[in-house]
């Protein structure tokens, strides 16, 4: 009866289509999963249909990138009304910003003598919005770099010559957007935030849960986040952050039981009753 509450599809930077992802979840014996693509809900309709076909419970979600205290902070939104106008408009603006950013990066790369074809990068991104991982993959394909890691460290990463900063939502904007769409905002993988001291301030901004169970969290971090959940009466969630075979993490790793999903639903009702 396990649920993987953190997964990505081809609608963002995952490698499986929503339908393939849901099918795989069924094969792994998962009861359900939340589709939480980066800054898009485009994978949800296909996922919901597949969920009925494979008898896997699909929870609509999203993962928003925000900026807080100079750090990148990801916020998961669970049980959102993915058709809500406000949310869709905000996501459309973000897609546009991502495209603008990709174009800027392409022109920088070209000035560095590493031209890439926009169409080629778009083919790599498939249905998803072009992001740095796709640009990196295109650079590998052209033989500009050995691997994605090198593409980031030499060209695309923060401080590198082709780096372009992205406009991000503030943490407060993201929380408001998710709550307005009837969702429950949860702090994703706090262990990946550069500064652990920020976590309490993030909690105080109004999140309702913490992703305690996460592949890269150490046992000590897990203990600490669990204690925070108890002190602040937050829901402890978990998930694999599955992106497909590109990462060495199996779908269903760090999955949680039905009780957690029930807590999310109760929290949602408490707010929107
Ligand atoms: Zn994330
Ligand atoms: Zn993620």
What attributes characterize this protein structure?
globular, TIM Barrel, 273 residues, 10 helices, binds zinc ion, 9 strands, alpha/beta, nine-stranded mixed sheet
Question: What features would you describe in this structure?
Answer:
The chain has one domain: Alpha-Beta Barrel (TIM Barrel). It is of the alpha/beta class. The longest helix is centred in the middle third of the chain and has 27 residues, at 85-111. It has helices spanning 18-27, 44-54, 85-111, 118-125, 132-141, 148-156, 171-180, 198-204, 219-232, 258-272, and strands at residues 2-7, 32-35, 57-68, 71-78, 169-170, 184-187, 209-213, 235-238, 256-257. Strands 1, 2, 3, 4, 5, 6, 7, 8 and 9 form a 9-stranded mixed β-sheet that branches. The structure holds zinc ion (2 copies).
Shape: globular
CATH architecture: Alpha-Beta Barrel
CATH class: Alpha Beta
Which superfamily, in CATH terms, is the homologous superfamily?
Metal-dependent hydrolases
Total discrete domains: 1
Distinct bound molecules: zinc ion
Q: What's the number of helices?
A: 10
In whole angstroms, how far apart are the ends? 28 Å
Over all CA atoms, what is the radius of gyration? Answer: 18 Å
Question: Which structural category do the helix and sheet elements fall into?
Answer: alpha/beta
């Amino acid at each position: 009866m396990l649920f993987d509450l953190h997964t990505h599809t081809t609608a963002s930077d995952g490698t499986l289509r929503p339908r393939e992802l849901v099918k795989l979840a069924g094969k792994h014996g998962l009861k359900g999963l939340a589709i939480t693509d980066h800054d898009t809900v485009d994978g949800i309709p296909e996922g919901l249909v597949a969920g009925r076909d494979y008898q896997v419970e699909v929870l609509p979600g999203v993962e928003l990138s925000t900026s807080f205290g100079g750090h990148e902070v990801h916020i998961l939104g669970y049980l959102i009304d993915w058709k809500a106008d406000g949310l869709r408009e905000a996501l459309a603006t973000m897609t546009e910003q991502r495209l603008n950013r990709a174009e800027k990066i392409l022109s920088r790369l070209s000035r560095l003598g590493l031209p890439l074809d926009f169409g080629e990068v778009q083919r790599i991104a498939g249905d998803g919005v072009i992001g740095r991982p796709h640009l990196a993959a295109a650079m590998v394909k052209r033989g500009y770099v050995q691997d994605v890691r090198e593409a980031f460290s030499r060209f695309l990463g923060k401080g590198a010559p082709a780096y372009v900063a992205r406009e991000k939502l503030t943490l407060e904007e993201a929380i408001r957007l998710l709550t307005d769409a009837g969702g429950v905002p949860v702090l994703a993988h706090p262990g990946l935030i550069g500064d652990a001291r920020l976590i309490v301030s993030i909690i105080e901004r109004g999140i309702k849960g913490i992703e305690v169970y996460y592949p890269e969290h150490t046992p000590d971090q897990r203990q600490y986040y669990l204690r925070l959940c108890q002190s602040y009466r937050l829901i402890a969630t978990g998930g694999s952050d599955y992106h497909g075979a590109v990462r060495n993490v199996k779908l269903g790793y760090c999955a949680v039981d039905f009780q957690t999903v029930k807590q999310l639903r109760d929290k949602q009702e408490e707010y929107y009753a």
